[in-house]
Write a structure and sequence with these properties.
The protein is an alpha/beta fold. 50% of the residues are buried. Strands 3, 5, 6, 9, 10, 17 and 18 form a seven-stranded mixed β-sheet that branches. The protein has two domains: 206 residues, Medium-chain alcohol dehydrogenases, catalytic domain (Quinone Oxidoreductase, Chain A, domain 1, Alpha-Beta Complex); 133 residues, NAD(P)-binding Rossmann-like Domain (Rossmann fold, 3-Layer(aba) Sandwich), CATH 3.40.50. Helix 12 links the parallel strand 17 and strand 18. Helices cover 27% and strands 27% of the residues. Its cofactor is Zn(2+).
């Protein structure tokens, strides 16, 4: 039996690198990818912190890229030796929602590294990973244009997620307020600038992350020093933000978003929620006529678009990588990421 090293979640706050069976192509639409880069995402913290209960020894990770080493008989877009990035969300491409360009709401949605609850797909924080429905799920990458491997790695999740969160609600000239300066929030800020926002404000409490937001042209709002609602009101002549992005996925962040949005504005929620219910000021939202957009991101709809913008030098999400670590140090990487000692961590499966 061939084996490989992978990052396993044993229980909450217990991540280990161990040997597991190396996967193989079993479905004709599958591709086996040798992983070259993989990253820790905010969504990974849900099982890590015990907010999303998984079965024992799930291989984590859903941001990865690498080289194709085995191809199923039905795959037509890839061959051995191709380098590719995969969407973190796998959809069927044929159901009602997929046919209506809503792959994030596919009736058979699967997400890498999130256990049986999301389709039992082994994750990409490993030396190898099987990618189902590869012709739809993956995009070939090359060295043409600008952008490096890390820029393209994030097209599989945070860059496409942040981009969609803004693109589906923003009009050129809008004021955009983003709650959370984590990787998705920073990608959303970058996307808002590229898509023509009049001004972008980013709310957080971590000074280093706010510095990153300011470096890409956003207004940093430190919620531990000022009232974010007053700060946003001040820069919008007391209207509020036309678009507010909840890039955190926590009830407190959503409540903050509700206080920032203008009448007739929109709240877009790329942050992941696992709660059965949360309290919202619904009467206020109703009277203000606020539209709320949410749900699993439609990653594959925006992979080509974001790859093109990276090649053109307009998006460069790799600037948000604060740490590059060997996969053997995954336990420490998860600890750092949870403690907000790192903005974005990329793991090397070869070390």
């Amino acid at each position: 039996m061939a084996t490989m090293r992978a990052v396993l979640l044993r229980k909450a706050h217990d991540v280990r690198v161990d040997e597991v069976e190396r996967p193989t192509v079993t479905d004709p639409g599958d591709v086996l990818l040798k992983v070259e880069k993989t990253a820790i995402c905010g969504t990974d913290l849900h099982p890590y912190e015990g907010r999303l209960e998984l079965e024992e020894d799930v291989v984590l990770g859903h941001e990865f890229l690498g080289t194709v080493v085995e191809v199923g008989a039905a795959v037509t877009q890839f061959e051995e030796g191709d380098r590719a990035v995969a969407s973190c969300v796998v959809s069927c491409g044929a159901c009602y929602n997929c046919r209506r360009s809503r792959p994030g709401q596919c009736l058979g949605t699967r997400i890498f590294g999130l256990g049986i609850v999301f389709g039992s797909l082994s994750g990409g924080q490993a030396e190898y990973v099987v990618v189902p429905n590869a012709d739809l799920t993956m995009r070939r990458i090359d060295d043409q244009g600008r952008g490096n491997d890390e820029d393209k790695l994030f097209v599989g999740d945070i860059m496409a997620t942040g981009y969609e969160a803004v693109r589906k609600v923003m009009r050129p000239g809008d004021t955009v307020a983003i709650v959370g300066a984590g990787p998705v929030g920073l990608c959303a800020a970058m996307a808002a600038n590229v898509l023509g926002a009049g001004q972008v404000a980013v709310v957080d409490k971590v000074a280093a992350r706010l510095k990153e937001a300011e470096a890409i042209g956003a207004i940093g709002v430190n919620a531990s020093e000022v009232d974010p609602a007053e700060a946003v009101q001040d820069i919008t002549e007391w209207r509020g933000a036309d678009v507010v992005i909840d890039a955190v996925g926590h009830p407190s962040a959503l409540l903050s978003a509700c206080s920032l949005v203008a009448s007739g504005g929109a709240i877009s929620i790329p942050g992941v929620y696992t709660e059965d219910s949360i309290e919202l000021p619904f009467g206020e939202l109703y009277l203000k006529g606020v539209t709320i957009h949410q749900g699993v991101a439609n990653i594959i709809n925006y992979m080509d678009e974001t790859l093109a913008l990276i090649a053109a030098g307009k998006l460069d999400p790799s600037r948000f990588v604060s740490h590059r670590m060997p996969m053997s140090e995954a336990a420490e990487a998860y600890r750092m990421f949870e403690a907000r000692e790192a903005t974005k961590i990329v793991l090397d499966p070869t070390s």
